[in-house]
Here is the input.
Amino acid sequence: MGRLSFKLFRSYLRNRPLIWRVSSQVWSILVMTGGSLLVALASAEFTIPYRFIDGGIFGVAILTSYFFPVKPGLLVLLLNVPLLFWAYRELEKSFVVYTLYCTALFSFALDVLKELHLVQRLDDLLLVSLYGGVLKGVGGALVLWSGGSLAGLDILGSILRRRYGIEIGKGTFAVNLVIVSIASLYLGVERGMYTLVSMYVGALVMDGLLTGFSRKKLALVITSNPDVARGFVLYALRRGATVLEGRGAYT
Here is the structure.
């Protein structure tokens, strides 16, 4: 009964394009908001307190905050400004606007959550790296799936995925590996290794979720009444359809 009601409600919205478009945008903003906050929570509770490293712009920001009295969230936002200008020229405008929103929210939430200490400190650094990686992977996937990004290497990853089909997580992991290797010289090899574990887990989770979100289903219907089947697909299911004529090879 609940599933039927949901389908009827969705059909009601789709019959009203303006309401459907607005509700879709609201849903996307809610999802990317949750994803941004999740990544900020993971960074504030499972990265910075343990002096772990990270990749991309965020890695540079937290590494700087370890040695200088600067807020990592604010520094992330400032370092991403040039990338956002570049993205505005190269990528879709809506993507850039969402990215600006997610980056600003992440930066603000990071500096706030870092002072709250919501999660009790753990002694097992492997568990810390796993928890942080999973949370960042889920949060990052939600942000990208809803049409935004957290700037930094996410912008580069989105371009690689759209143009060349390269998976975002694995594509950015290679670049992050170089950044973490250099940072390990200052913070120690142990911190660098746990950081790589966290980043690899996050990349696997992100790619797995994004691949699952992107899957599409194709149904091949063989019928002698194509008009009926076409009408059902187009108007009842509200999906696209292609009509092909064929005959058996042995007839």
In short: DSSP finds ten helices and no strands in the chain. The two ends are 46 Å apart (CA to CA).
